[in-house]
Amino acid sequence: MACIWVYVDHFKGTALPASYEAIAAAKTLGGKVTALVFGQGVDALAQTAFHYGADEVLLGDDASLADYRAEAYASLLSKLAKEQQPDAVLFPTSIRGREIAAMAAIDLDTGVLVDVTEISKDGDNFAATHPIYAGKLLSKVTVSAKPALITLRGRAFGKPVADASRSGTVTKVAAAVADGDLPTKVVDYATVEGRVSLGDAGVIVSGGRGVANNPALTPPAEITDEKEKEIWRAQQGFIMLGELAQTLGGAVGASRAAVDAGYIPYANQVGQTGKVVSPDLYIALGISGAIQHLAGMRTSKVIVAINKDPDAPIFKLARFGVVGDLYEIVPALTKALKERLGK
Amino acid sequence: MKIAVFVKQVPDSAAKLSVDNGNVNWGDAPLVINPWDEYAVEAALQLAEKHNGEVAAISLGGEDAKEALKHALAMGAGSATLISDPALANADAAAAAKVFAAAVQKLGGVDLAIFGKQAIDSDTGLAPAMTARVLGWPALSMVAAIPSLEAGSIKVERAIEEGRQVVESKLPAVLSIVKDFAEPRYPSFMGIRKASKAEVPVWSLGDLGISAPESKVSWTEITAPAAREVSNEMVTGANADEIAAKLADLIIAEGVL
Ligand SMILES: Cc1cc2nc3c(=O)[nH]c(=O)nc-3n(C[C@H](O)[C@H](O)[C@H](O)COP(=O)(O)OP(=O)(O)OC[C@H]3O[C@@H](n4cnc5c(N)ncnc54)[C@H](O)[C@@H]3O)c2cc1C
Fold first, then answer.
1. Interatomic CA distance for residues B167 and B164, integer angstroms
2. Which of A103, B38, B89, B192, by CA, is between 20 and 30 Å from A14?
3. pLDDT tens, B127-170?
């Protein structure tokens, strides 16, 4: 019987939804599913792993695992895999997931199939699809060694359903490296308040260079520089986008032009050199639809575009398009959706 | 301070790609230095300038990868070396990492090995952590700022999904750099002249003293994704409120909220 492990990726005890997608994906491959939960004081995550379908949990709970550090996490995963020889280990394609898989591949002399959108069992081997060249092509990949290490793109696999009645056995495992023997130390965190992670968001409201074009807004008198005035106008515009996003429980994205112009931080950039996202609903406002932007959002389920220019390439991809000024449509749209959603 | 920076030559991101008998074709679109690697070169140069260091650029690839190296030289790197060997034609990320690590060892005395976040052709982003592991060095990925660097230790700010993680680490270490670090400089006129005249030495596996590492990942097929079927509907109306009302109903009818 196949034995598949799933690395439950979390930040300070809050699991990435893609961790549970990975458990659900592991279930479809057949065999026993073991969830790996590493951290300190993270017992609750083990229980949730059962709810999403894990048959057993290996729980690493140690001071050396309190803060995420790739070396500590990879060493423990590699040690356990050497002892227990799973057929595959699945990870969400997060920064952490990629790092741990990369290091474990070296330790275990195997390969990583990264950021895959489909996965299947091909006899004894695992085969997967990995979008390359920013999704312009698809590559079929296989790994000939065991365990196959595979990171799954968030939201590419079905949404799992939790069953709170499920439970299982938790086996505690000791850390592989003592805290003092690690070369790195985490000294601080600065979390970004109120940000919905773009990768997990079901709805993204994105703004482009067009967000700066609100003639009705008068910048405060103390701003005299033209560039500063434009940034101020755009930032007010993004507050308006934020309200629409909040109404829909979504996140705010942006084009590179908006980021480069200083309207919004780089963390919000969608596209080839930003985040690749795949929400259920993507609303593009004042975004022309350059190929590098499309590369980051073309797999969104439903795309809505509002643009002044009827020839904007974004309309080719849009399920619904409006030719018009975003400053007229967005406030009205937010109001209409609030009413319909009872907010 | 000795810094190795890794650069790759890739098709321009606007290239129209097609697949031909399993071979990727990008028409007459130019090859360029991987955009993420420009940030890596910028970081290497800034650190070298501040800490009296030297920057060695390294690329793995065919003859055309020399252009990426020349770009790094034009930006200000002190030396450039191409690693090229027919036995590496189908190297997977782990095999490439073993080659990168061997190159770092051959350079000798390297304090920092710096990568871009990922290559825009293969999109794996595995090289930094894998190379670090082969070398037995810590991996500090997604570095957005370097508040301090001293003999034997470094402090970095990593841009992770949830915010910033500040990490102190021993040296030597492997870094990958993200866009927040700084805008890459343009090659200077003098730099371009120097780069155009530079000889780029080529190292084979033999020069690195290793045999071809075995690749465990194989590519069985490359295809173009199915064209996206969208039934496009333009929403019109007498005024913004009417358009917004129609659009809201249509969005809700899609069942995605
Ligand atoms: C190597 C490389 C990597 C890149 N990576 C990315 C990436 O990751 N992400 C990305 O987005 N781009 C990326 N780009 C940049 C990309 O090529 C485009 O320049 C960028 O996406 C354009 O952004 P935009 O659509 O906001 O701006 P523009 O192209 O200037 O479009 C602005 C749009 O707003 C519309 N508009 C203006 N005012 C209004 C209004 N009041 N109401 C409604 N509509 C209005 C205009 O009609 C226009 O269509 C990359 C480029 C390169 C070379």
1. 10
2. A103
3. 999 999 999 999 999 999 999 999 999 999 999 988 899 999 99
